[in-house]
Amino acid sequence: MADHTVKAFDEDITRLRGLIAEMGGLAEVAIQEALDAMVRGDEELGDSVVARDKKIDALETEVDKLAVRIIALRAPMADDLREVIAALKIAGVVERIGDYSKNIAKRVHMIEGRDRFEPLTLLPAMGDLAGEMVHDVLTAYAARDPGLAREVIATDAKVDAFYNSIFRNLVSHMVENPATISSAAQLLFVARNLERIGDHATNVAEMVHFAATGSYPPEEDRL
Amino acid sequence: MADHTVKAFDEDITRLRGLIAEMGGLAEVAIQEALDAMVRGDEELGDSVVARDKKIDALETEVDKLAVRIIALRAPMADDLREVIAALKIAGVVERIGDYSKNIAKRVHMIEGRDRFEPLTLLPAMGDLAGEMVHDVLTAYAARDPGLAREVIATDAKVDAFYNSIFRNLVSHMVENPATISSAAQLLFVARNLERIGDHATNVAEMVHFAATGSYPPEEDRL
């Protein structure tokens, strides 16, 4: 590419990365607020998480459009093209992470007898870990840092351990309190949504690692 | 583009569409076999569904690579570029549909007391509907048929109705049979996975409709 084209391409990529960082910030806040709303039974906060998910969706559309325009106008080759395609994919995953938080927020009004559920103290801690994964993986993406990407992948095992513990806890709770089964089932889905957020952050971490090093991280990172 | 470039581009796009059709065929089979395995408790069949999901993943990687090559070599503009990007996105969604079936198949060995679960007769019917949506939306994609895409979107309401019915049924079952709560919780996730397959088929249907008509289908289709 000519020099001025290279500069224009770099500016475009910076903008693309900025949009993805913005999506990531919103997705992190959504995880935390969805769980705050869930724990406190704050339906208003839950509704605002649901409403703000549209903003994440709109940013993804913006990423898509910008990526298409970059490809059409700048005709990037090789690594540059792969970078644009990676941005498209990462934006898609962050949008899905937003959907999981929205899904948690939608369940706020479905829980009865909040104070009797021990998982309601575990879920925010699990959410903090999942949110940290999302934060770190986007930092790793911005800094092209494969080491941090591997840390994110290692953290996923902790999120999975939370999930297994909460699952067992809720099943015991159901056995002992049949009247609360419907609420407990909703909390199972909440735990499952957080577990999926961890999986998606891990997927992004693998893409970041691949983009930075040309290879996928070794399997032993995924304990 | 020069004539020979147009022809090469058309051939590439045909190949891209062929790969996506192959992914879709495998995803349909996976839904049906995962539910067969679940209903009969056939762990061997479940394992083969899990193993064959790698084939769907490999096809997605092939779509990604081919799409990047098409963009790099043919430098498609406007509608042609959007078509390639749409193929990338649709392949991503079909891959996710495969993951949901794999997730169902992984739960086959977690169900005890199969013959006492009424939902085990409802889930295959729900799976047939979800599989039909996947089949029809890929037919709509291949034929660029917005009418069929709208039918797929309308079918999603039936899948959601199945989900709600199975959810209520399982919660009642849990209340009446506390000893089976753990198995019932697994079946909740199975129903949820099928419901998500319907959602993803709907997303593809919206993309197909948009690609064919330039507008998203009216909201009343999504009853």
Describe this structure in words.
- The first copy, chain A, has 223 residues and is mainly alpha-helical.
- Chain A has one domain (3-221): Methane Monooxygenase Hydroxylase, Chain G, domain 1 (Up-down Bundle).
- Chain A has helices at residues 3-40, 43-74, 78-106, 119-143, 146-176, 181-213.
- In chain A, helix 4 (119-143) runs antiparallel to helix 5 (146-176).
- Chain A is elongated and about 70 Å long.
- The model of chain A has no long low-confidence stretch (mean pLDDT 91).
- Chain A binds chain B through residues 64, 67-68, 71-72, 75, 77-78, 81-82, 85, 88-89, 92, 167, 170-171, 174-175, 178-179, 181-182, 185, 188-189, 192, and chain B through 64, 67-68, 71-72, 75, 77-78, 81-82, 85, 88-89, 92, 167, 170-171, 174-175, 178-179, 181-182, 185, 188-189, 192.
Strand content of chain A: under 5%
Helix content of chain A: over 70%
The name CATH uses for the topology of chain A is Methane Monooxygenase Hydroxylase, Chain G, domain 1
The radius of gyration computed from the alpha-carbon positions of chain A, rounded to a whole number of angstroms, is: 19 Å
Q: Could you tell me the number of beta strands of chain A?
A: 0
In DSSP terms, counting alpha (H) and pi (I) runs of 4 or more, how many helices of chain A?
Answer: 6
Second CATH tier, the architecture of chain A: Up-down Bundle
The structure class of chain A reads mainly alpha
Average pLDDT of chain A works out at 91
Q: What is the CATH superfamily label of chain A? A: Phosphate transport system protein phou homolog 2, domain 2
> What is the general shape of chain A?
elongated
Terminal-residue CA separation of chain A: 43 Å
| Largest sheet, strands/sense/barrel of chain A | none
